[in-house]
Each structure stands twice: as C-alpha cells, then as structure tokens.
C-alpha cells in the first residue's frame, strides 16, 4: 500500500505525517511538497519525498504516480487560488488512478455560509464527480488560529472580539492530525463525511480558560463588527488581512462553526483535548 500526503511540510501536514509513521513503515509513505528540500529530514527517515506543486499539474502527475490512498490537505490563499489548486489535485489523482482520497474540508461545508466555505464546496464536488472513493474531513477551527490573540493578551491587551455568542468547536491541530491519519489508514470507505468539531465554546469560554491558564483575569472587549474592523485597521494590519479577520468574526457570530453532531471522538478513539488543556499545550505550561 502506498499512501501520500500533500502539503506535508506545513503545520498540519507535518503532524499528520508523524502520526502515520506510528502505524506504517516509512517506505509505504510518500509526501508531495512544493519545496522537496524542506522535507529532507523525512527523506533521511525513508519517506518517499516527491515534488508536487498544485499550480503545476504535470508535477502532480509524477507525484501521485503509484499512489493508492491520497490525503489532500487544503491549500492556503484566496478562494479562486484554492479552487484552482484543489481542482488540479483532484484531476491529477484521477489521472494517476488513485483509489481513495481523503480531503481536509470545513465544518458543515456544503450548507455553510462561512467565508472560508466556497473552495471546500467546489473541491468536495470535484472529488465526488471524479468517482474516486473518498472521505471528507470537515474540520472545525484550529485552536492555533487564536495564537496571535493569545499572545496579545499575554502582552497585556484585552481579548477583542465581535463574535458575540457565536460558538466554535476549537481543537488542537494535533487532534485533527490524528483523526486525518486514522481516516487515511481505514480501508473500505466511500463517500463518508466526518464532522470533526470539538466541544462548543463561546469567546467568553475561551477567555475564561485562558484566564485559568495564565493565573490572572483576562478582560474581554466586545465590539461591533464596524468597531472591530476599525480597531484591526488601526493596528496597522493590511486591508486584505482586516477583511479576513472581520469575515471570520462575522462567520462565528452567525453560528457557522456551531456543529452539534460531531464524529471527532469516534474517529480519534479518545476524547478531544479539552480547551484549557489545549491552551496549556500551546503555551507550554
């Protein structure tokens, strides 16, 4: 059996690779990366490192050759870029005769109004239309996404939010990585959707957990979306970053990450890491 993980040198991808190597021999695992030199340490361990660039389909033909089970990790970038890159990857998988695709999607993707949803909707459709057996890993929100805000609090700032009472299923990337590895290794799956959401929490819940970890009260400053936008702009952030941050806050307050039915624990085979413990791990405390 030959497994392949795309984006294997990224933050999530590298964790998934480590999880897979706990269960399979390095000779069974290939990785597709844009810059193979960044995966030199994996090559030294016996992993098959291949050059694969989502913007260069011919490289994907070579990267996916002989692969039976493929994990496509969603790329970064604007929606149009991601749609193009993901479509290239799916088409290359079909040309290569890949027998199974797992894809890291977004919570409740097909019905979501989250600003991040469009590329995932298109990618899921492309995978379905390819006719290749597949599983969608509909990830909620990485706790790591909040690291910059947590660092600001450590430096003395309040927790600034416009998300109101919107709930989020935060979980560590490590939990998502273990789930992805388990799904890729599990055979006889076709058109399976896994909603992977941690326990639901509000911004106040996150602030309370952070207060416990830091051993001091963290103040939360609730703003309107307009005031939040001006605050982010006033902090000197680029306009495109401000737009994304405001969009995320709007998406959370609209409840797009409030997923009540989750497959996370059954896929992990254990409970999701609790919010407070997750923060402790991120901060090394």
Automatic annotation (TrEMBL):
Origin superkingdom: Bacteria
Domain NmrA-like: 4-245
Pfam families cross-referenced by the UniProt entry: NmrA
PANTHER family assigned: NMRA-LIKE DOMAIN-CONTAINING PROTEIN, QUINONE OXIDOREDUCTASE 2
The protein's name in its UniProt record: SDR family oxidoreductase
Annotated source species: Exiguobacterium profundum
């Amino acid at each position: 059996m030959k497994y392949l993980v795309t984006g294997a040198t990224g933050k999530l991808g590298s964790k998934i690779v480590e999880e897979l190597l706990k269960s399979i021999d390095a000779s069974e695992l290939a990785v597709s990366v844009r810059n193979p030199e960044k995966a030199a340490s994996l090559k030294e361990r016996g992993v098959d490192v291949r050059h694969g660039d989502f913007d260069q389909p011919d490289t994907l033909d070579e990267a996916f050759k002989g692969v039976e089970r493929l994990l496509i990790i969603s790329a970064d970038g604007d929606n149009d870029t991601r749609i193009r890159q993901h479509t290239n990857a799916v088409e290359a998988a079909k040309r290569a005769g890949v027998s199974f695709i797992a894809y890291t999607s977004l919570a409740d993707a097909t019905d979501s109004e989250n600003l991040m949803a469009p590329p995932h909707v298109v990618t899921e459709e492309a995978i379905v239309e390819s006719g290749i057996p597949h599983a969608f890993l509909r990830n909620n929100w990485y706790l790591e996404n909040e690291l910059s805000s947590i660092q600001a609090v450590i430096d003395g700032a309040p927790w600034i939010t416009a998300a109101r009472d919107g709930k989020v299923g935060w979980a560590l990337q490590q939990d998502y990585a273990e789930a992805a590895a388990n799904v890729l290794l599990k055979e006889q799956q076709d058109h399976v959707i896994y909603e992977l959401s941690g326990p639901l929490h509000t911004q106040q819940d996150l602030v309370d957990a952070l207060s416990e970890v830091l051993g001091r009260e963290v103040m939360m400053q609730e703003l309107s979306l307009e005031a939040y936008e001006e605050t982010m702009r006033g902090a000197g952030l680029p306009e495109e970053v401000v737009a994304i941050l405001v969009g995320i806050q709007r998406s959370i307050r609209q409840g797009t990450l409030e997923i009540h039915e989750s497959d996370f624990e059954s896929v992990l085979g254990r409970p999701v890491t609790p919010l407070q413990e997750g923060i402790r791990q991120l901060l090394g405390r």
